[in-house]
Design a protein that fits this description.
- The chain is α/β, with parallel strands linked by helices and 186 residues long.
- The protein contains 5 helices and 10 strands.
- The strands form 2 sheets. Strands 5-4-3-6-1-7-10-9 form an 8-stranded mixed beta sheet, with helices on both faces. It has a two-stranded antiparallel sheet with strand order 2-8.
- A hairpin with a 4-residue loop joins strand 9 and strand 10.
- Helix 1 runs parallel beside helix 3.
């Protein structure tokens, strides 16, 4: 059975999106980016909200660009090999292979996906992740925390959800100041 993993880059004060960005992230740090790529090798399916999918779909053609660093290309291979499910009421078509649209988030369908999978499932996008967290579907939380405080925006964790987590692993990246933590639901 696969685990459902919620992972995103977040500011030190807990925001995944803000007006001025959320600080220096893994894109500028080859070591951190390669580490993230390795973390997602076990993911067989990505669950995205529309906006997160529109950010991530760049990986579909990244390998066709000139001069892309090897650590970026490696993550792109992992991303393209996985299934993608985009939850959106407005998106009419997808622009990546192995991708389908679902109009509504159905906790029971996600539960069946986890149970029937021999690989992990990743949920990204704070609005979609909030639904998975509220339904008690998330098995692990993997924040990548920048060293920036942004003062507001869209939160990594939603209001009103209580989680008791066990720290499994942590790591820091001096090049970017990024902090990684791997938590398991207690």
């Amino acid at each position: 059975m696969g685990k459902l993993i919620y992972s995103m880059v977040t500011s030190l004060d807990g925001y995944v999106e803000s007006e001025g960005g959320i600080g220096r992230g893994p894109a500028e740090d080859a070591e951190a980016h390669a580490f993230i790529g390795r973390r997602f090798e076990g993911v067989g399916t990505y669950l995205y909200g529309r906006r997160m999918y529109e950010v991530m779909v760049a990986w579909e053609t990244m390998h066709l660009q000139e001069g892309v660093p090897p650590h970026i290309l490696e993550y792109g291979e992992v991303w393209r090999a996985a299934e993608k499910v985009v939850y959106s009421r407005t998106l009419r078509e997808v622009s990546s292979e192995r991708t389908r649209i679902e109009r509504e988030f159905d906790p029971d369908a996600v539960r069946r996906l986890k149970e029937g999978s021999d690989r992990d499932v990743s949920v990204s996008g704070p609005t979609l992740a909030a639904q998975a967290l509220a339904a008690g579907l998330v098995d692990e939380v993997h924040p990548f925390t920048t060293s920036s405080v942004v003062g507001g925006g869209k939160r990594f964790l939603p209001e009103g959800v209580r989680l008791d987590l066990e720290l499994v692993e942590h790591r820091s990246f001096r090049g970017s100041g990024l902090l990684y933590a791997h938590y398991r639901a207690a």
